[in-house]
Amino acid sequence: MTPNECRLLNDRTAVVTGAGSGLGRGIAMGYLRAGARVALLDVSGKRLEEAVAEAHGIAEPERAVGILTDVTDAGAVEEAFRRVAESLGAVDILVNAASIAPSRPLVEYDLAEWRRTLELNLTGYFICAREAARLMIRQGTGGCIINLSSKTGLEASRNNSAYNATKAAEIHLARGWALELGEHNIRVNSIAPGNVFEGSMIWNEDYIKACAEKRGIKPEEVIPYYVGLTALRREIKPRDVADAAVFLASEMASMITGQVIVPDGGQVFVR
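User: That's the sequence. What structure does it adopt?
Assistant: C-alpha cells below.
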C-alpha cells in the first residue's frame, strides 16, 4: 500500500497549482486518494476541466474543485484562495507545481522566454506561497507548503538556463520560508523529481527533439536514455512523486522542514 492509499490526509484541504496536467495533476489525484479535499488551480480551462473530471472519478465532487487561475496575477491568486476557504474550508497544504521549461542554448535564448519562465516558476511560486502563508497564519492551525522543484535544481543541465535558475531558486526560497514560518508551525519543503514523462506538458514533442539533439540520439531513444541514467533503471511515474508529496504533507513528516526529497530513481545524490 502506498501513502496515496493510506488516507494520511483525511480532513485536510490542499491547493495544487498547475493541477491541469503533469505532476501537479498527479499530486492532486494522490491527495484525493489520501483523503484530502483538493482545489485544482490551472491557467488552462480545457486542462482543468479534464483534471476535475478525473478527480471526480476518484472522490466525491464536493472534495475536488477546479479554479481557473493565473498564478502570476496576485489578485487572481487572492481570489482563488478566498474561494477555496469558502468551498473547502481552512487551507492546510499548498503545492506550487505550475512551471515551464523552454530549452535553448544560451546564445539562442530569447529574453521574453527567459522572463516568462522566471515569472511563472519564481514569481508564481512566491505569490501563491505568500497568500497561503497569510491564510495559514490567520487560521492559527499550522500548515505545509511544498515547492515542486526538479533534479535540475540540484545539478544543472545543458541548454536550460531559465529552468536551471528557477528550479535551484525554488529550493532556496523554500528553505528561507521554512525559517520564517516555523514559529507558526508551517513546514516548507521541496520535492526535486527526476524525469517524469507520463502526462507531462514539459516533455512535449519539441522538448524531446531538443533533448535528442543535445544528446546526439534519436527522439524515440530519449526516454530510454534518461531511464538508463537512474540507479533503479525504472521510469519514474507521477504517482511516485505524489507519494512523496502525500508523505511530506502528512503528520508522518511533522518534524521535516527546509528539506529536499528527491524521487529520481537514484540519478542525483544530494550532497
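The first strand starts at residue 13 and ends at 17.
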